[in-house]
Amino acid sequence: MKIFFFLFLFFISITSNVFSQTTHDKMLERLASLNGNWKGYLEYLDYSDGKTKVKLPATCEAAFNKSGNDKYLFTKFVFDEGKGRTVTGEDAWTILDEKTFFFDSTNFAITKFDDNTDNTIFIFEREWMDNNKPCIIKETFTIKSDYFSILKQVRYKEETDFFTRHEYVFNRVK
Length: 174
Description:
Layout lengths: L1 H31 L3 E10 L7 E13 L6 E11 L2 E13 L2 E4 L2 E10 L4 E11 L2 E12 L2 E10 L6 E10 L2
């Protein structure tokens, strides 16, 4: 009976490791699907008054690095502020493990990964600061074959509801 019990535990251990690797690989695969050029916009809630929404045309170049053990998506965003002014931002995104997403130069806890053939949703959260106030940041990534969006929501410590701080919406450039 003891041998059966140990074999059972061994089997569970092996299958959970295989499942973890499969989930991790699937997450990386969905991130890699963003490889390419994108065009869209950034809409954000102005920090100065907390009411005004600003919408800027934006582009994104994404290149997936799959060499060696370091698999990540390098992103470069360009925001058009008008009157010939642009702002550029670069970042590297990766799935460190099935519970940790590296994004915006910090680690976020993966709180949801829902993947089907048409639509993938990642939700990440972390404690942070927004407008000099402690808060919870929730980032929702929605990925489709020719579309992706990033919704950033904020909930201040003293509040019960999240509000939208900004949203990126992009379509693949063909």
